[in-house]
Amino acid sequence: MPSRIVAKKLEKRFGHIHAVRGIDLEVPAGQVLGFLGPNGAGKSTTMRMITGFLEPTSGSVELEGINLADDPIAAKRTFGYLPEGAPAYPDMTVEEFLGFIAHARGFRGADAKSRVERAIGRVNLQGVRKQAFETLSKGYKRRTGLAQALLHDPGILILDEPTDGLDPNQKFEVRELIKELGGDRAVVLSTHILEEVEAVCTRAIVINKGQIVFDGTPSDMDGRAPREVTKNRMDHVFRMITTGDVAAQAGGRR
Amino acid sequence: MSAPALTAAQRTAVVFRREFRSYFQTPLAAVFLVIFLFLAGLFTFNIGGFFERNQADLRPFFQFNPWLYVFLVPAVSMRLWAEERRTGTIELIMTLPFGVADLVIGKFLAAWAFTTLALTLTFPLWITVSWLGNPDHGTIFVAYLASALLGGAFLAVGSFLSALTKNQVIAFVLCAVACFVLLLAGFPAVIDFLRAAQAPAGFIEGLASTSALTHYESMMRGVIDLRDVLYFLLVIAAFLTINIFAIDWKKSD
Question: What residue numbers bound the domain in which B108 lies?
């Protein structure tokens, strides 16, 4: 079976800044891919190119076999996307907002209603459904964003920092949800929290300065740390990979 | 993935509905409608001398309409794109299965429907003048049409300018100035000044014909000239087209 997401040689320049320098990526169904990297490494830019918000300077993206540049509207129907910061219209209620998303996704009437109900149930938004988005707590805002991304039951989910700013309980809930969703979908999520990758991801990619510097399973990544490191082993590896000095000291690759 | 793919018209309609409703989810609609109707009345009766003229027409109302639009239309158009960029929802709508044209046209039509609604709510003026005298209904209808078209042209300019900035105040000021210039190019005082300054007649005529005011006033007299209607439609089409490019260009700033 072909991979759900196929990105080839993605490059992005903003003026003289070379933000993404040749990223190749394939994500098959059933994989939960954790996207790691320091701030400014190009994580969000890469996700924005995969979702068609930004046009790559060069390279191509295929979603479920549909070329994003050739047929952007069809390609955009294949995925659900949670942009960084989970934006939504401040004056709309949760219900109205999800109703708009349902219509945008092509659902109508009773069909749209039942989609909204399912999405609300899935992320436990029942208590705030009549509340305006701007009055919600950070946790509920994030969940509304997730509900929006899940609404049409897409085969691909792209989540930019889905647990950022959540309290430990909310983080736990969102992680459980992502694990549950992973089953038959291709999921890409970016995060700064390395335990999160261990907890939910089946594959980890570290990008630094616009390039992939590590690609493997979370346990591969853990295995890179020297034996004497016993605590926060993944953090250690992350520093080894993304800062040249530590890597040299520890004798790590690249 | 069971939902059917939408046609361009259906996608535009989804965008239109959300945008049009959004006016009524904030006090914006109420404030705008009240101020528009209040000022329209003030200009018509107090400044325009509706009763003193002793003529059964709505000239005083329509004469001041463009100047009312200069600062009321930007209040509607400033938020169209600046707000999407400020709240980050632009990233959301541009990754939903919409084309940029669906978004630009849907949002514009919603704003236009809203200002046209405000205009329609001045119908008591029409009733009043019909009750007091025997006005030429055809002329009034054409003048209303001209006013709606002028509002649409200003909104298209404002929508484009709103796409250039995150800041609604900047979007407002830019739009007000642009609309003002668009009117002023045909204002008699400006034309007279240029004549006095010995500007070439061809230049003056060319300038006046690009002015919204020239086309508005010729329709206000009750004459439907296809060229006037075409002028407004072309202004709308031109600004919406550059609006689409502006969004592709500035969306991620």
Answer: 27-250
pLDDT band at A251 (very low <50, low <70, confident <90, very high): very low
The HSE-up count of residue A98 (CA atoms within 13 Å, CB side) is 34
pLDDT digits (tens, 9 = 90+) for A218-233: 888 888 888 888 888 8
Q: Which of B24, B92, B98, B107 to mutate to test the interface with A (most CBs of A within 10 A)?
A: B92
A135 vs A235: which has the higher pLDDT: A135
Domain count, chain B: 1
B88 inside domain? yes
- Strands A5-14 and A17-27 turn out to be antiparallel
Asked if residue B31 is part of any domain, the answer here is yes
CB contact under 8 A, A83 and B98: no
- CB-based contacts of A197, cutoff 8 Å, min separation 6: A34, A36, A191, A204, A218, A221, A234
Determine, yes or no, domain membership for B154.
yes
**How much is the pLDDT for B253?**
63
CB B157 within 8 A of CB B239: yes
Surface of A (137-166) touching B: CB under 8 A: 148, 152-155
Residue for token pair 């709606």: B148
